[in-house]
Amino acid sequence: MCGIAGAMRRDGGPVSAALLQLMCQAQAHRGPDGQGSYFGLDVGLAHQRLAIVDLVTGDQPLFGPLQTVLIANGEIYNNPELRRALADVPFKTQSDCEPPLFLYQRHGLDFVMHLRGMYALALFDASRRRLILCRDPFGIKPLYYAETAEAFLFASEPQALLASGLVPRRELDRGRDELINLQFGCGRQTIFAGIERVAPGETLVVESGRIVARHQRDALSLAPPRHYDEPDALAELDRLLTDSVLVHQRADVPYGMFLSGGIDSATLLALMARLNSRPVIAFTACFPDSLVPDESALAARLAAQIGATHVEVPFFESDFWSMLPSVAAAMDDPAADYAILPTAKLAQVARQSVKVVLSGEGGDELFAGYGRYRAAARPWPFGRSMRRHALLAGLGVLRDEHPDWRRGMGDAEAAVRDRGLTALQQAQAVDCRDWLPNDLLGKLDRCLMRSGVEGRVPMLDLALANLAFHLPDALKIRRGRGKYLLRRWLQAHLADSLPFARKRGFTVPVSEWLAAKPQLGTLLAAQPAIKALCRPGAVEALFTNLDRHKGAAAWTLLFYALWHRCHIEGGSVEGGVFECLG
Length: 582
Description:
globular; about 575 residues; 24 helices; 3 domains; six-stranded antiparallel beta sheet; single chain
């Protein structure tokens, strides 16, 4: 995992080294192990390295045949298999990102169809004077771009594009409304005017500083469920799970895992223990000064049973107040997911002993773990559509409640309609388009890269994901519980994880901590971004009686105020919450 940035000028002139330096400084945390750059014709490319594979010769940019140059953020897990298939190629390094250069020579823009992994890469073909940007099908790795009057810019993080000085610091109302109602953004357009996401699975072709073509590689085949007998499905699940975790462990540095005690992380624990001769290193967050239940005790028992080295990472109320400003600043493409806080602390602790962490993101979306999926799957007339409700709706806090924030969700719903999918599959596919890349995966990327740790997500291997998505509904949801087939697998391989017991889930006691500081309402209401958004007196009143609904609303407003202070106002986020807002 690294950071990439670059530019292609419209007038054909050379790209300024100072411009790339500004962009790289803004995302320097992504590459503590080295830097490299390339300048040629009208293009400049810059790479900041977090060294994971080929520590000696893997520096980038990488150079291929016919005047091609590549920089990449991510991991190509089928690197050994690709090298065997390209046996006649004179490779210069052992980098997992070198084979794409030769695949491009042989297959043109279809080279991405041969890649298995997580990646955001830029390939410059000097002979054709074209720049190619590609992002992996699930959007595990981030990639953003801006088309300005001077140049086409791209980077791993929006804040690098803002640092260029060519993109204004201006937020879009629709993006802001999506954030405060959904807690994440939808579609290609970010919250920043002029900055867009390269969509998951998208390949862009840029010539003379303008996008001239777009190509799409979808993560999921949007087809109805396939018939599986349960024993056959379990056998195929075991094969694909094992293979995915095996290749996700390919690294030249120490690796571990995040263990919550839930179904997904327990599955990873069982597989990593099976595949490793050394003890697995597992990191678990807990909340010792709160009454909120967690699964840390179960996680500790499972780690002990399987012989893992277990590291319990306590997250205290004091951590919440001290860490939140800097973590909100790291979430430049904002997601107001309270799990950013323990995730960031887990990464800080993990970095002391490992450089790669496997995590269970994607398991809920693909194996149907959410309650909203169970509601969507109920037969008519009991089923409910998976329409998300506005977090601040009905509280009388906002000056205006515009319905425009629903448009992105509506676009995702329309894209999966009339494809022969079950209602359950439609709900899953909608989440995989926006919620998964723009909330969960964005959170994992920013919170781990903040500490120089690479996050890997074996549940999102394409073959495994398509098996899970195309299972019959009855193998996903049974007797009111989701993830049926995954629970059955876990019952056979780690029965002490209690896979069919009711899980408590992962909850951060944010409402409890906010309720203990009612004076925060007055301070928050005085922030420029909140003044413009909320009715006079409404925020102070919100903090006087925080229940679960109001607590979620208060948290979202607090996150938004801190994010706005950093990324729109350009203010400092040094110190804790009260110092920053004060």
